[in-house]
Fold this protein.
Amino acid sequence: MSESAFIEVDRVEKVFDVRRRTGFLKRELRRVRAVDAISFTVARGEMVGYIGPNGAGKSTTIKMLTGILTPSGGRLRVAGIDPSRERTRLAHRIGVVFGQRTTLWWDLPLIDSYRLMHRMYRIPDGRYRENLDRLVELLDLSALLDVPVRQLSLGQRMRGDIAAALLHDPEVLYLDEPTIGLDVVSKARVREFLRELNTERGTTVLLTTHDLQDIEQLCSRVMVIDHGRLVYDGALAGLHEAGESERTLVVDLERELPPVEVGEAARVVKVDGPRQWLAFPASESAAPLVARIAAEYPLVDLSVREPDIEAVIAKMLYSMGDTPKLPPDREPVRETVVPGPGNS
């Protein structure tokens, strides 16, 4: 592993065998390439967004990085450790939060889950108490410690899961959809906590999400995976430029007026009574556009809507003509069919 790389992924792939019934006593075996020869490195202390459409291979990558799944090919190291071969050793150095699953004990009070993890990870008593007090304060969990996990709201449980993942001071934190289904207040609280964690403790964070605001507010770097292939690695602004994505400014005026005129800064895409929708480049700030409209029109209210992340990726791939070409030694297909029992 290079000196600057804390996470190193070198041409890693994951192939699943899926058997399907095709007729009476007939089956076929489909080999689905969920992750297809991806390579990247993440430096210690980086906070990186790892995004893509549903089924792109994001969660599969995270599971290989934690040792839950074994790669079908390639080389993978986290802090110099092979996750699939030394999963127990690695567990003491990583934290994982899956947004749609919980690591907490469903029928126990939240504090009992933390006590169990205290023993499981063999956290020294003093360090456990210090970390617990800090996490309870930062994530506002004090009133929830004696509440059974099953009675917590989604936002409360998510904050509880994040605290559980950090009790043992992991060096890297994997977050798989950590804000899914959360309300605005809970999202803001989780984002602020993650920002402080990364800044103050230097924790490496790999974040998968469908919420582009998570990426914009937390990550300076974003990687895009599509059909198991890494198709972009760079700044978020570069992703917007590659996909020519647009944000939408929704403007409410005092009365119905003709489409507002703001030159080349934006274009009106819809008018419905006093409400108008203006599209402008996602890589540009909304501030000058808002200031101009406020100065020239009777403005009542406005809001900015972010582009859908899957639409951004789709536009980016379309502008590229197709997904990037694979190296010469790789098959260009993602799924192959192998005759199974009963097939001729």
Observations:
- The chain has ten helices and 14 strands.
- The radius of gyration is 23 Å.
- Residues 91 and 207 are 18 Å apart (CA to CA).
